[in-house]
Amino acid sequence: MSENSKTLRPTPPGVTEAGLDAALAAFAAAIGPDKVSTDPELLKEFQDPYQVPGTATNLPSAVVTPTSVEEVQAIVRLANEHTVPLWPISRGKNNGYGGAAPWVRGAVMVSFLAMNKVEINEELGYAMVEPGVSWFDLHDAIEEGGHDLVASIVDIGWGGVVSNTVEHGLTYMPNSLDQAAHCGFEVVLPNGELYRTGSGGMDNNPTWPLYKRGLGPTTTELFMQSNYGIVTKMGYWLMPKPEVYMPLWLQVWDDSQMPAVVDALRELMLAKVIDMRPQLSNTLIMASMLTSRAEWFEGTGPMPEEIIDKLAKELGLGRWMMRFALYGDEAVVDHNYARLRARFLQIPSVQLMGQKYSAEEWETLPNPHERVQIGVPSLDLYKMAGWSGGDEGGHVDFSPVIPLTAKHAKEAQELFEKLCHEAGLDYLGGMLPINARSTTFINVIPFDTKNPEQVHRAYEHAKHMVEVAGKMGYGEYRLHPYFADTAMDQFGFNDHIQLRFNEQLKDLIDPNGIIAPGKSGIWGSRLRAAGFPQQ
Ligand code: ADP
User: Could you tell me the distance, in angstroms and rounded to a whole number, from the CA of residue 372 to the centre of ligand 1?
Assistant: First the structure.
């Protein structure tokens, strides 16, 4: 714990209280005092809700809420002058990955809630969005404009389109495979200059949101999961409304048949019969969205096998359940559905069901899972966080990427389940393919934030899992601050050349380490010299 984390007021590393006051006064003079706040009530929103209440040390010192790109540039320039780190967030709902909290105590939050413009181009099928645009905003803009388009969205609609994209977040429709629905970023660089990636390097180039490359190296990906700039605008591709949308459910009643389903899934994805991102979940993940643990089991260790089985049957879930969908002209959907049946129903204990809907019907489908896959957002699937602690429940997610084969899925599943049980925790596992060849293996580790020992055990367990998976050659797809440095450590090829390269770049473009220090293990020389990462 650093010196300043013991004082009441969070100040950034190496910055005095007077220095912080001078920085905040400079921000206020540049963008207006109403857009700079140190109100303790407001600052409470920039904490990770999944920590034991009252124990967080990574607290922000202030929040600035710019309303234009020029204001973002002014903030970044002044932050350099005062060596005050900034932590950009879009909607601040990154729960399970550290929430809205900065990774460095005393950082100034840059909140984009006041920059939420959406422009839609129906002819070319894309939206141009600012970072404050939520999934609800995007959906509403499409509907209110009467556009014949749908957006690929996440399960819980309160997050942001830009933030989810820069974090390599997963959505479900065809455009989202390989996390490739974005095209063209506008970025405020760490020195305050405005930069556009891809064809945006040319004045007035109309293909900026259409063509992902430009001339020379394309740098868009450098601004994802990084701290090389603040994204202020992004192109996001949309899909024309299909004639027919057919949400599908596949149930696997015999636990041991999951690997066979994975092999069939890969074949069908490679052949593009399934051309979207399915979600294959075990009983407890599905159950966590419908019920709470206490309704089935009050014991302290992991939920026993016979109770999981009972729950699977009584809630009609199966031991594994896959949510997925077909989109397109009715004749194509019918053809592909027949191919799915022919392949999946060869596997013992598998059932498959689905129903076709037209655009008039899908907006109001009663099942939120079915609405999500056609771009209709809700908050209904948030219940998962309450599996172990009700309203005060939380979770930390450990999600390595593995090859999409039966062999790897079986090995990973057996090992992760065993480790979870050894730690005395329920096993909530599932797969969200990245593409037809690889998948994230999601492990949701739930806890009750009122139980400090359980919270500590869950985070330690997640960190341990990161190390074990690393030894098997599997890396995380996304980082929680609690295990960010450990996860980056697993990428050790050639004496950690990736991290060394990232650090060199950081020092070159952000010598004061102003933008999101610590993100993806990239601290920059100034903070490394000041003792970061702290143990
Ligand atoms: P969401 O509300 O969509 O869950 P957040 O707003 O909490 O996401 O942002 C998640 C993370 O994404 C942040 O902690 C930050 O690292 C990164 N991020 C968010 N917005 C931006 C942005 N405009 N530019 C750069 N990075 C961002």
Answer: 21
Distance CA 498, CA 504 (A): 10
pLDDT tens digits along 474-483: 999 999 999 9
Instruction: Give the fold, CATH level 3, of 118-240.
Output: 3.30.465
Which residue in 196, 293, 319, 478 is the catalytic one? 478
Distance between CA 269 and CA 433 in Å, rounded?
Answer: 10
CB of 234 closer than 6 angstroms to any ligand 1 atom: no
Give the Å distance between the CA of 90 and the centre of ligand 1.
5
Beta bridge partner(s), residue 398: 443
The residue whose CA has the least distance to atom 7 of ligand 1 is 92
Cα–chain center distance at 248: 24
* Cβ 479 under 6 angstroms from ligand 1: no
Would you list the domain boundaries of the chain?
Answer: 3-111, 118-240, 244-484, 485-529
Atom nearest to 229 CA in ligand 1: 25
pLDDT over 60 at 280, yes or no: yes
Decide if 477 is catalytic: yes
Q: Which of 97, 126, 427, 459 is catalytic?
A: 97
Query: What tens digit of pLDDT does each residue of 322-372 get?
Result: 999 999 999 999 999 999 999 999 999 999 999 999 999 999 999 999 999
pLDDT of residue 2: 43
For residue 478, indicate whether it is catalytic: yes
**Does 521 sit in the ligand 1 pocket, CB within 6 Å?**
no
Please enumerate in sequence order all residues whose Cβ is within 8 A of that of 280, keeping only pairs 6 or more positions apart, or say none.
258, 261, 262, 265, 320, 321, 322, 430, 431, 432
400 near 440, Cβ under 8 Å? yes
Q: Could you identify the atom of ligand 1 that is nearest to the CA of residue 516?
A: 16
Confidence category of residue 253, pLDDT binned at 50, 70, 90: very high
CATH 1.10.45.10 fits 485-529, yes or no: yes
Q: Whose CA is nearest to atom 25 of ligand 1?
A: 230
Ligand 1 pocket mutation pick from 167, 219, 522 by most atoms within 8 angstroms of CB: 167
**DSSP output for 196-237:** E-GGGGSTT-TTTTT-S--SS---GGGGSSSSS-EEEEEEEE
- Third-level CATH fold of 3-111: 3.30.43
- SS3 of residue 38 by DSSP: coil
Q: Which two tokens stand for residue 6?
A: 């013991």
> Is a pLDDT exceeding 70 seen at residue 67?
yes
The CATH number fitting domain 244-484, selected from 3.40.50.300, 3.30.1330.10, 3.40.190.10, 3.40.462.10: 3.40.462.10
Q: 519 in ligand 1 pocket by Cβ < 6 Å?
A: yes
